[in-house]
Design brief:
7-stranded parallel beta sheet, 7 strands, Rossmann fold, alpha/beta
């Protein structure tokens, strides 16, 4: 890419949950737009493969062994990014789990995992990054939510709750920092063809989810990555606060 087609040249981005799916696609999109990219996740082998792909494309990459449910790990990830890549301009809070299932008969460990990852992970990473962005007077925080953050449905109660929390947290943060040059964006995908359904533990819920995803032309991870890129490449005076993106075939 020429400099004119690299709108993020000189910028530094950090993407959580980067080992697969939307996170990996987003890291690639940001790197292709010129950013140096820190990629964080728990699966080191997947990160190694992604880092190789990014470096082959000429990107500067930092690999982070990152579990977003651990506050100290989040703080360390942001500090390493700033120390080794020279700053932090874009934080994409993508790490998440979708452990769908009924509330009746639920394994409450699924609930803990969703709240710790989907909610506290976003909060820990934001806490680590936000003060530096406010001090520099610029920055983008993009939080990955879901259509489930807008519409509650049976069989997804706690997942719904986790994404509604992300939406509320994002809007409150936006009001705090938008006057100080920091933008907060929310991306709310519908059905995306990723590994999320593989982790559902309730058999009926897993079967229903797989059936829904295979009954339509689901979104691809790259579709969501383009939405993230659109948010963070706007002129400084333009803030796109929410993007709801569904497959054309998805009714709800």
């Amino acid at each position: 890419m020429s400099a004119s087609t690299q709108p993020l040249a000189g910028k530094v981005a950090l993407v959580t949950g980067a080992s697969s799916g939307i996170g990996a696609a987003t890291a690639i999109a940001l790197a292709e737009a010129g950013a140096a990219v820190a990629i964080g996740a728990r699966r080191r082998d997947r990160l190694d493969a992604l880092a190789g792909t990014l470096r082959d494309g000429g990107a500067t990459v930092l690999q982070l062994d990152l579990d977003v449910t651990a506050e100290q790990a989040c703080t360390a990830a942001v500090a390493r990014t700033r120390d080794e890549l020279g700053g932090l301009d874009v934080l994409v809070n993508n790490a998440g789990v979708m452990l769908l299932g009924t509330i009746l008969g639920a394994d409450t460990e699924d609930w803990r995992r969703m709240i710790q990852t989907n909610v506290m992970g976003v909060m820990y990473m934001t806490a680590a990054a936000i003060e530096g962005m406010v001090e520099q007077g610029s920055g983008d925080i993009v939080n990955m939510s879901s259509v489930a953050g807008r519409q509650a449905r049976k069989g997804a109660g706690v997942y719904n709750a986790s994404k509604w929390a992300v939406n509320a947290f994002s809007e409150s943060l936006r009001q705090e920092v938008t006057g100080r040059g920091v933008r907060v964006g929310l991306v709310e995908p519908g059905a995306v063809a990723t590994e999320l359904t593989d982790h559902i533990t309730q058999p009926d819920a897993k079967a229903a989810s797989v059936q829904m995803y295979t009954s339509m032309r689901a979104l691809q991870a790259e579709d969501i990555a383009r939405a993230v890129l659109h948010l963070v490449t706007q002129p400084p005076h333009v803030a796109i606060n929410e993007v709801l993106i569904r497959p054309t075939d998805q009714e709800r």
